[in-house]
Amino acid sequence: METVKDFFKQINIRISNPLIFSFIISWLVWNWKIVIVLIFYNEKFLNQDGYKSYLDFITKNTDKCYSFWCPIFFAVGYTFAFPFVSTGVKAFQTWIDKRSNDWNLSILKSGKIGIEKYMSLRESLDVRRDFIEKIIEKEGSNLVLLEEANDKINSLEHQLNENKLEHQREIKNYQQQRGILNTELLQGKWKMQTFMNNTVQNEYIVEVKDNYYYIIQNNKPQKVAMIEHYKYIIDSNNRDSNSIFFIKAMLAENGAITSKVVNELKYNYNTKVMEGIENGFTQIKYTPIS
Fold this sequence. Notes:
Elements: H1 2-16, H2 18-30, H3 32-40, H4 43-48, H5 54-60, H6 64-109, H7 115-178, E1 188-196, E2 199-209, E3 212-217, E4 220-233, E5 242-251, E6 257-267, E7 274-278, E8 282-288
Antiparallel strand pairs: 1-2, 1-8, 2-3, 3-4, 4-5, 5-6, 6-7, 7-8
Helix pairs in contact: 2-3, 2-6
């Protein structure tokens, strides 16, 4: 395999040689008839022209002049003469360009704007171009700084929003742990029932208003207690089981506190019903009256 590669490599080197390549091209030009016959003719056409075979045609149409001397002379001439011709052409083109520039300069000197003035304006234009390029470069660096500043601002805003959300969560957790201290949920009229072994023992219509506890009899409210130490504790897992804790400070007719009754209730968020224990053993239930 390596031998085959070396063989084709050597062939490529030989063909790449300018003299050999020129000889091949010139031989094809001088012996164009042979090329045409080998590519386009078949034996029928050869017979019609009086030739017995391709070999017969090649033998009768080749000689030393066309097959060797003419192509070799042309190849040698092209290989060695062409560089001088090419150099001469380039030199002539350079001479033409120089003459053209000289003519242009002579014309400019006699024009409305002389060459000195033209060169001065050209230098001024170059200075202004450099100045503008520096300004553009400086503005580009300023844009990069501005983008970095905007990224920092966005990062700080994001961090501020995260801190705000965290603060809100902390407030919510605090409210859930410590309870809500206003008595808004207790305000209004209720049907209050006490039970013993799931049997109703007492039933009253009561009203909570401005932190006072009233019993309504014959449509007349009677102030019997004051609400103290109210706490509403939220169950984050089940809001139908939120807790309400408050103390009823029982009042005499003269407004003096006679005793205190503890209420520990479960508040149903959907039905607004409160059920639980009063004073540690009495079952009690509050049903809202709309």
